[in-house]
Write a structure and sequence with these properties.
This protein is of the alpha+beta class and about 525 residues long. It has 12 helices and 29 strands. The longest helix is centred in the N-terminal third of the chain and has 28 residues, at about 5-30. One of its GO terms (molecular function) is serine-type endopeptidase activity.
Length: about 525
């Protein structure tokens, strides 16, 4: 690593030369008559150009804001067992060391390791005068001792009230002889890209560090958990900022700084992620009351809708270039809230409690935030027609999973490139299927065929073709021929690994793979 002196020397030799080259390029362009003035005049002739109407504004001053909120921001030190860290890997619970770009990782303070224990540092903030502190789960996970250092330097022992690994949040409690300064949670749904935000935290042990930037995007899914819904920011945040607050200019917390994306696994490159305050509020309220989090459960296996599927399902045509929005119900779990309410396979969920649903992940996030036993309104399309229903949300903790598929047998499935076989009693036994399951089994898939390109696999059980149930290879072939004759995509409902999913194959031989499906099992999707 270059020293500060060597870095200055490096830029002294290099940057000036680079700058001169750029300036020379600008001079040449102007001499040729294609400089900025000429380009502006040419572009001005296009009446369709976007012309922002916002007035020019000066950069905001955050001095007063920081003075008011900084006393409620704390530094956190955790004493963690060495074996607890070694067993964590590179997810939200680990340091992220050695992970390939561009995998985002948490950025707590690099640990100081002894033979038995590791000291790690992070950030947090007070949300009540009686000492409740919000931070990240990965800051305190596996900790045998946690201490909180206030802005005035006072260090107090902290008790872990509760942790939630799925959202990477934790709630601590400290006790003081006096009322403590605290800050309020704002409304993250009101935050807009381009808005100024301020981060305060404890990067590299430098407590009380303030950085500023803008909101880069909302609703980011970085594949860290089933409920990812991050605010992306460009305010510089680094290791040790984990658990620290993200403020808007009104002094409200709209996020908890949690992870960064870095090519080298080192410092900030201006791509950071914060957990929205709406999620923080829901999770910490439950942790405060019960010490754990319960989540809503709908009981659907949903998947992303491709353009070919949208056409096969007679969905409204989206705007040019826009993907079809919604969550396609591939199946409903037996005796689940969705099944009881009347939701069916091939329904397309478009909104949940008045909020737009653009994908299965959207649906999972919205359902999980609803308390079990609460009624929710679902808007959906059935056969292309909009409908609504009311469902009583269940408890995810009471949900279970089942299923399992493996092999196949032999017959003919023309035009798609598959070999089909009846679902006999022996095959039911081999595949672990009950008598209530009907369909035909894919025995083989021709390499490079439309079925192969669409993602059909040997062992798949085809249950319906273009909304028609099939229980024999002949019935399946007849339904496929009818769909192809009408020059419409062939929509197959397939049972795979205990989960139902849809696969669409277009008449021209192109298809949509099944890898984008989202299940309703375990910790992956909790719809």
């Amino acid at each position: 690593m270059m020293s500060e002196k060597s870095v200055s020397k490096f830029f002294g030799r290099t940057s000036r030369k680079t700058l001169l080259v750029l300036l020379a390029g600008v001079t040449c362009a102007g001499a040729m008559g294609v400089g900025p003035a000429g380009l502006s005049a040419a572009y001005a002739e296009d009446a369709g150009a976007i012309k922002p109407s916002s007035p020019v504004q000066t950069l905001p001053n955050f001095v007063n804001l920081v003075k008011q909120v900084k006393p409620a921001v704390v530094s956190i030190t955790s004493i963690i067992k060495a074996d607890a860290v070694e067993g964590e890997g590179g997810g939200m619970g680990g340091m992220g060391g050695g992970m390939p770009f561009p995998f985002p990782f948490p950025f707590q303070m690099a640990p100081r390791q002894s033979r038995q224990q590791i000291e790690a540092r992070g950030s947090g903030f007070l949300i009540s005068s009686d000492g409740y502190v919000v931070t990240n789960n990965h800051v305190v996970k596996g900790a045998t001792k946690v201490t909180v250092t206030l802005d005035d330097g006072t260090t107090l022992p902290a008790k872990i009230i509760g942790r939630d690994g799925k959202t990477d949040l934790a709630l601590l409690k400290i006790t003081s002889t006096q009322k403590l300064p605290f800050i309020e949670l704002g409304e993250s749904d009101d935050v807009q890209p381009g808005e100024w935000v301020v981060a305060v935290g404890n990067p590299y042990g430098l407590g009380g560090t303030v950085t500023a930037g803008i909101v880069s995007a909302r609703g980011r899914d970085i594949n860290e958990g089933p409920y990812d819904n991050f605010i992306q920011i460009d305010a510089p945040i680094n290791r040790g900022n984990s658990g620290g607050p993200l403020f808007t200019q009104d002094g409200k917390v709209v996020g908890v700084n949690t992870a960064i994306l870095s090519p080298s696994g080192g410092g900030s490159i201006g791509i950071g992620f914060a957990i929205p305050s709406d999620t923080v509020r829901s999770v910490t309220d439950q942790l405060r009351k019960t010490g754990h989090v319960v989540r809503g459960y709908l009981g659907v296996n949903a998947q992303v809708i491709s353009p070919a599927m949208a056409k096969a399902l007679n969905m409204p045509v989206p705007a040019p270039g826009a993907p079809p929005a919604g969550a396609l119900v591939a199946s409903t779990s037996p005796d689940s809230p969705a099944e009881k309410a009347g939701l069916k396979a091939e329904d397309i969920v478009t909104d949940f409690n008045g909020q737009k649903v653009s994908s299965p992940h959207d649906l999972a996030v919205r359902v999980s935030s609803v308390a079990p036993g609460t009624d929710a309104k679902i808007g959906f399309l059935r056969a292309g027609k909009p409908q609504t229903l009311t469902v009583k949300i269940g408890n995810l903790a009471n949900a279970s999973n089942d299923g399992g598929i493996e092999g196949g047998g032999a017959s003919s499935g023309q035009h798609l490139g598959v070999s089909l076989t009846p679902l006999t009693g022996d095959l039911r036994h081999q595949l672990g299927l009950g008598n209530e399951v009907h369909g035909v089994v894919v025995n083989d898939v021709q390499p490079g065929s439309p079925a192969d390109q669409a993602g059909i696999r040997p062992g798949d059980v085809i249950q319906s073709v273009s909304s028609q149930s099939v229980d024999s290879p002949r019935a399946a072939v007849t339904a496929v021929r009818a769909a192809l004759a009408a020059k419409k995509p062939v929509l197959l409902r397939v049972l795979r690994d205990g989960q139902s999913l849809f696969i669409a194959i277009s008449p021209d031989g192109t298809g949509d793979g099944a890898d984008s499906s989202s299940g309703n099992g375990g910790d992956d999707d909790d719809n």
